[in-house]
Amino acid sequence: MCGIAGAFYYKKDLPVSKELIKRMSDEIIHRGPDDEGFYLKKNVGLAFRRLSIIDLNTGNQPIHNEDKSVWTVFNGEIYNYVELREDLRKQGHSFYTGADTEVIVHLYEEYGADFPLYLNGMYGIALWDEKKKALFLVRDRPGIKPLYYAETEAGLVFASEIKALLKGGVSRIPDHEAINRYLSYGYIPSPLTGFRAIRKLNAGHMLICSGKTCVEKEFWDLTDKSLSNEDISEDELTGILIDELKEVIDRQTRSDVPLGIFLSGGIDSSLVASVAAEKCNLKLNAFTIGFTEESYNELGNAKIVADRLGLPLHDYILSESEIFKEIEHIMSFLDEPLFDYSAIPVYFISKLARLSVKTVIGGEGGDELFGGYQTHYLHRITEWYRKIPKVMRNGLKATVNRLPESHNYLSLPYKLRRFTYGAGFPYDQAHYRWKVLFDADEKRKLLSDDFVQNISDLEPFHAMGK
After folding, report:
1. Whole-structure pTM over 0.70, yes or no?
2. Residue 446: how many CB atoms within 10 A of its CB?
3. What span, in angstroms and rounded, lies between the C-alpha atoms of 175 and 349?
4. Minimal CA–CA distance to 367: which of 336, 340, 347, 345?
5. Among 41, 217, 285, 289, which is disulfide-ready with 260 (CB 3.0 to 4.6 Å)?
6. Greatest Cα-to-Cα distance within the chain, rounded to the nearest angstrom
7. For a pLDDT cut of 90, what percent of the chain falls above it?
8. How far apart are CA 239 and CA 245, in angstroms?
9. What is the set of active-site residues?
10. CA distance linking residue 203 with residue 147, whole number of Å
11. What percent of the chain shows pLDDT beyond 70?
């Protein structure tokens, strides 16, 4: 993990101060403790915090092209940089580092604003074209890497984290609509943030600032991908998935430092670990977290997988007292509210892994890609449930709501209450109801009248389809 920050005063011809850029950079030093770098020229400034993964000796940023007219800082990793470097050399470009970053400036020289289309990776990029006096901010296709920006009287400031923008003097006035969305979804969707003046760059988008304007442009959308109508068997699909995973892991584990894997014992991380060990022949250290609360504890499953694959397993049993001791420090990394409490064990397992490795792979995103959450397939039960006479369903719902509370992970009473609450709605709305934290009635009890008057809709179901 690295971090970037910067400013472009395109509205007023004012110099960007080194003190401002350094102050913003220092605020995200935890993202890149190994090194820092700066580019400042008149009304533009770029800053970089480095965690060294590839090209440990010459890969520090900012990186420039041959005549130093194009500069970039970026947070992330370009997985196909080896192949891109070879193609770009054939087109006459020369390289002065071994870092993946350098392909960005040369791709821009070749393809202009279309350069992200050639990148396979996760990234938040800031690229400055000195000749055109244009700044490009680019966020990767699924939005893995964060990138925030804010408009000021002088122009634009940007950073990998909100706290760097606040350190740069951006207004802290809260965004009521964003908080309303959080109370529904458990997170704040793009482009909103908890602050009215700050926005997230949307996934698969770029922000182009030149002249006196900034324009956001979409360069990729998942819905653009057509689905195959081929009749493929389950065995064939499994083979395709394994081959794809092998290719992805081979690319994403290019590194000049030791690698590890977060292994929960669940399907997703276990599959990644299996392909990495048996198909890619990687020697990985595995890391896992256990809990004293048995319903949350998957340590046993992780041990079974690690033993099966012959992976050294480093485990850590997380206690309640340790969480209370570290919770304020953990919260300092979250610049806006997030309901997903997995951030807590991720913090502790990351501390454990950092004792041995600098980078890890894992199974994040598997449930989203393959519909792994229970709410994704509840429609099958819902179709049957709606055939029950309404009077009986109402009685069942009342009975379920009287069941005693349980603090176990995804307890049966919790799931039954959620299901009966949402099952009476059309399926798309039912899925929202199964996931929602606070519905409109609960928000009216929670929020002040002044707050409610500052939001558009207490039930922002419509936003989920965007």
Report:
1. yes
2. 11
3. 33
4. 340
5. 285
6. 76
7. 66
8. 10
9. 2
10. 9
11. 96
CA proximity to 252, closest of 101, 359, 124: 359
Q: Hey, what are 274's tokens?
A: 């299996």
Work out the average pLDDT over 48-59: 69
The structure tokens 């909103």 sit at: 192
Q: 194's torsion region: left (phi>0), alpha (psi -120 to 50) or beta? A: alpha
* pLDDT score of 171: 96
Distance CA 240, CA 235 (A): 9
Q: Tokens 């055939």 — which residue?
A: 387
Which residue type occupies 179? I
pLDDT digits (tens, 9 = 90+) for 201-255: 999 999 999 988 999 999 998 876 666 667 788 899 899 999 999 999 999 988 8
Domains of the chain, with CATH numbers?
3-221 (3.60.20.10), 234-370 (3.40.50.620), 374-447 (no CATH)
Query: Side by side, which strands form the sheet with 148-151?
Result: 35-41, 44-50, 3-8, 156-159, 148-151, 198-200
Measured in degrees and rounded to the nearest 5, phi and psi for residue 214 equal: -125, 130
Side chain identity, residue 41: K
For the cut 60, the answer to whether the pLDDT of residue 286 exceeds it is yes
Place of tokens 């990186």: 63
- What phi and psi values does residue 140 have, to the nearest 5 degrees? -60, 165
Residue 348's identity, in one-letter code, is F
Alpha helical stretches, state H, 253-336: 267-274, 299-309, 320-331
Tokens for 28? 């995200």
Structure tokens at 189: 């969707």
Token pair for 172: 């802290």
Question: For the residues of 390-410, what is the DSSP string, one character each?
Answer: HHHHHHHHHHHHTSPP--STT
